[in-house]
Amino acid sequence: MTTSKAKSFVLSICDTDFIFALTCLSYVLERTLPLSKILQSSTIDLKNASEIVQCTIIVLQSNRTNCISEFAKLYSEVQQLASGLDIDLKIPRINKKQTHRENYNSQSIDEYYCISMFIPLLDSIIEDLKRRFTLPSMEAYDLSLFIPTTFLQQKMYCTSEYQDRVSNVSKRFSSIEPNILHGKTILGELEIWCQKWKIIAEEGIEKCPDNAIEAFSSCNAKVFPNIKSFLQILSTMPVGVASAERSFSTLRRMKTWLRSGMGETRLTGLCLLHVHREVNVNELIQSVIERFANKKQRRLDFVL
């Protein structure tokens, strides 16, 4: 990096607009963090997700109503940050006619940035949440009811509420595959599906699937054709599975400039180790050493 670029970056960071934008975004993201966590979880329940969405919208609307008092707190934080960095806060020049930005008639710094930045940001986030999380779109989360861990943890099994929610899901998504999804037989499959995983969980025979992909792999298409189709829909929906996004984030962290010459095999191995951090590698050391030793004739004896 050259000296001129470094100076330009410093000037951009020390700009008044940047400091206010950073503070306002931090304020909003602090309130949307719980919603982001629940939407990126491997098992999503419609009830919990819709409650968090509504609570987030209500909180942001309350902040929008009390925007003056809320922004006063942010302005004090900006002043402390600016004083620590020795930055003079100032508003952009106001002209009679402005073509590149809004020309707010305000003389104070806090009033200007409250009108030009804080209020539009809150309005945009609130409208975006309302538009994205409508009732039809939220019903897609009920597809996670077929994941064994979901109905086992919530102890739904085959209650009337659980069956009603499954019936609504089957009616909504039956148009996708009308020859496969049958609403009359789905409840029968559901009872057997719930009972199967209830027995497995009680006896501890195997681990119950906690995401759509594992549940899809564990589902027998001949025995549970309808549930298999629903799990296939859930596995291919971006709103239901965040594994693809996590893989791209992992690749961005692993494939750095210092590892530009790394081969595909090593890169894949590092990414898998990073994604599946819950796997106890120490238990697999013996099998890895044996596989390495038996791959070809070696002089050393690989014995732990």
UniProtKB/TrEMBL annotation:
Q: Per UniProt, what is one GO molecular function of this protein?
A: protein dimerization activity
Domain (HAT C-terminal dimerisation) ranges: 215-277
A Pfam family annotated for this chain is Dimer_Tnp_hAT
* Coiled-coil boundaries: none
Q: Which domain of life is it from?
A: Eukaryota
Transmembrane regions listed in the UniProt entry: none
Leader peptide range in chain numbering: none
PANTHER family listed in its UniProt record: 52 KDA REPRESSOR OF THE INHIBITOR OF THE PROTEIN KINASE-LIKE PROTEIN-RELATED (PTHR46289), DUF4371 DOMAIN-CONTAINING PROTEIN (PTHR46289:SF14)
This protein is called: HAT C-terminal dimerisation domain-containing protein
Q: What is the lineage of its organism?
A: Eukaryota, Metazoa, Ecdysozoa, Arthropoda, Hexapoda
